Amino acid sequence: MPFVLRQAVAADMAEIMRLERAGFAEAIQETEQTFAERLQAAPEGCWVLAGEAGRLYGYLCAEFWPLEAGFNAARFARDHAAAETHVADGAEVYVSSMVVDPATRGTGWGRRLFRDALAAMFARHPQLCSTILIVNPEWAAARRIYQAEGFSEIGAIDSYFAAACGAQLPAIVMRRART
Question: Is 144:153 a contact under the CB 8 Å cutoff?
Fold first, then answer.
């Protein structure tokens, strides 16, 4: 099935939330309010992989931040207000969330969504020079994609993700300079 990469709109919210529930454990899912606020504050960073009849097969949400040496762990808080962190002329893209529908996993569409959405943002906003994201250390497939796309681990944020056994896992912080 052909998919179309496009910027997200408010009418996509139900599908974005369906994907959020399908893609993340309940303990780390973000709220509809968070996504609505991201879409309003940073529309240039919200992208979807759209199919037929309004069905979405993936989304990527991002904000533009000022570029900092290293990273400030507080900026990565779950459900943070994008209106307080997004800077339209920021130099770094923060990929805050990305999910592909379980039906498309393993098909390459997730990598295409990631690569093409970032390429579109960089093409439209020439001041961008870097991308930063966090990833759960247990998400080996995601880490492989990010490494293959040129991202390097630059640190970790302690006790960020809940593990199945009740323990807390760090968030691995990864960054890539403009390619």
Answer: no
Task: Find the domain containing 142 and state its range.
Answer: 4-177
pTM here? 0.93
| Consecutive H or E run containing 172 | strand 168-177
Model pLDDT for residues 97-124, shown as the tens digit of each residue: 999 999 888 888 889 999 999 999 999 9
CATH number for position 108: 3.40.630.30
121 membership: H or E segment, kind and range: helix 109-124
Q: Are 39 and 49 in contact (CB under 8 A)?
A: no
Write phi, then psi, for 75 (nearest 5 degrees): -70, -15
Instruction: Specify the number of domains making up the chain.
Output: 1
Report yes or no: 94 and 86 within 8 Å, Cβ to Cβ.
no
